[in-house]
Structures are given as structure tokens and as C-alpha cells.
Design brief:
Elements (H helix, E strand, L loop, with lengths): L2 H34 L9 H31 L6 H27 L7 H48 L1
Helix pairs in contact: 1-2, 2-3, 3-4
Length: 165
């Protein structure tokens, strides 16, 4: 992989990580202050909503760090090793956790009149979409497994050929 695409991707990842830290440090406390004025009937939603937002940002940060490490492996030419699977597994786990957080948000908003039923349906659809991303990453993990197996096989064949020659 060329140097320019790696640098561009790292710049984007760094900006996203900086933005996510800003959201955690500034926006979540501002959201907490806004939710202080919540109707007393819905005050029970304050803490779970803040926790879901905070943990959602954490899942994004975990994915960003793992992608950074995978890009580093690509740059070094070591991505087709078993070490890459650890990062891919963490990405899958983080995306599934994010989907569970979205479903939890929908479950919190469903009872009562806090939001319209259509909003709960949209949140459920977003949860399914996030779960779909986890499945896409899982399929890509299977492709990585095939590539690693082919790489190991090619290395063994080269070694055998070198012995013959």
C-alpha cells in the first residue's frame, strides 16, 4: 500500500478520534446539563441515555484504534498474519456492542409517550443497520482468514521449492 493513502487514512482516523474525545469531554456534559431540565415524568431516562451516549462513543474509539493498528500492519506488510485477527475480533465485538446499545436505547424510549412510536421503529432499524455492519466485518474476517491460509501455503511451497533447487 502506498504511503499517501496510509497518511490520509491516519489523518482521518486522528481527526475522528480527536472529535470523539471532544464529544466525551464536552458534549456529554452539555447533554447532561440539558437533560437536567427534563420533564420529571421522564427523569428516569437521564442516566441511561448519558451512559448509552458515552459507551457509544467508546465503541467508536475502539474501532478507530483497531483500524489504526490494522493500517500499521498493512503498511509493514504483516496484515496477513494471525495477529491481525485480534484487531478484527475487537472491531466485530465493538460494533455488536454498539448495536446492543442502539437496541437498548430503543427499549428505553419505547414505553410511555417520551417519543413517537415511529422514532422507536427508526432506532430499531438503526440497530439492525449497525448489526449489519458487524456482519460485513465478519465476512471480511473470513476473507482475511482465506488470505492468511493462502499466504501460509505459498510460504510452505516456496520453502519446498527452495529445498528442491
Amino acid at each position: 500500500m502506498g504511503r499517501l493513502p496510509v497518511l490520509a487514512l491516519r489523518a482521518v482516523l486522528a481527526m475522528l478520534l480527536t472529535g470523539s474525545v471532544f464529544v466525551q469531554a464536552v458534549m456529554v456534559p452539555l447533554l447532561a446539563a440539558d437533560l437536567d431540565g427534563l420533564d420529571p415524568e421522564y427523569a428516569y431516562l437521564r442516566a441511561p441515555l448519558l451512559l448509552i451516549v458515552f459507551l457509544g462513543v467508546v465503541t467508536v474509539e475502539v474501532v478507530l484504534v483497531c483500524v489504526w493498528r490494522l493500517v500499521t500492519m498493512v503498511r509493514r506488510g504483516t496484515v496477513f498474519t494471525h495477529a491481525a485477527f485480534r484487531h478484527v475480533h475487537v472491531v466485530i465485538g465493538a460494533v455488536v456492542a454498539a448495536a446492543l446499545l442502539v437496541f437498548t436505547l430503543g427499549a428505553l424510549l419505547a414505553p410511555g409517550e417520551a417519543v413517537a412510536p415511529g422514532v422507536v421503529l427508526l432506532v430499531g432499524g438503526a440497530g439492525v443497520a449497525v448489526l449489519g455492519v458487524a456482519l460485513v466485518v465478519f465476512v471480511l474476517r473470513m476473507l482475511l482468514a482465506q488470505a492468511v491460509a493462502r499466504d501460509v501455503e505459498a510460504t510452505q511451497m516456496r520453502a519446498e521449492l527452495n529445498e528442491v533447487i
